[in-house]
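Researcher: We're reviewing a set of sequences before deciding which ones to prioritize for further study. For each one, I'd like a predicted 3D structure that I can look through quickly. This is Glutathione S-transferase. If possible, include the structure in token form so it fits the rest of the review sheet.
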Amino acid sequence: MITLYGSGPNFGLPDASPFVTKAETLLRMSKLPFKKALMSFSKAPKGKIPYIEDDGQLLGDSTLIRWHLEKKYGIDFDQGLSAEQLAISWAFEKMAEDNLYWASVYFRWMIEDNFRKGPVNFFKGVPAPVRPVVVSMIRRRLRKTLNGQGIGRHSEDEITAIGIRSIDAMAAYLGDKTFFMGREPAGIDATMFAFAVSAICPLFESDLQRAAASHDNLRRYVGRMTARFYPELSEIAGCQAAA
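Model: Here's the predicted structure for Glutathione S-transferase, in token form for your review sheet.
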């Protein structure tokens, strides 16, 4: 059986990391049996989550996990999609993963109120005497990462504007379609769902969150994905499951 490693459910989300949620949704779409376990960064093959263990093989990165499932198990997450649709899917996925994600990280980790409501809880297992030092060190490292990626070089208003452009693009392309590419879910929906629920999550207050939550079609989409692939849940990130 495949084991998916992540940080676990948190903040009203299937996992605190949208990349883990993407991988979990792909596994649920595949209908392959799997179980979930808490990660260990020392075990993670790429030093990050998600990663899976499949027949003794450790594999990291949500996109590489998808390719592994497709190759080993003969799964076609994009059955029936045209070359144009595949190109659009890839572009939207990279927009979410390499642009919107970093804007969301900024608002979770660099805005003090949001950090105290969310990420600070990741450090509960650190001994109290050294916890402030560890927290400060990790946040400094992350700020450096954000600066290296580029988003951290912008003002808060500029980061908000960049993130909202991605959110608006997602909502505009989804339109009134049931799923991103039509009436049936495709591989792109695992990614769009994961990043939509992450952006909508009401725990982390920001203009970016409010912009995401203001798109009724995105909220309904999250509800449909929840009903389809997380039937044990009545809602995710405050979005009610809908048939």
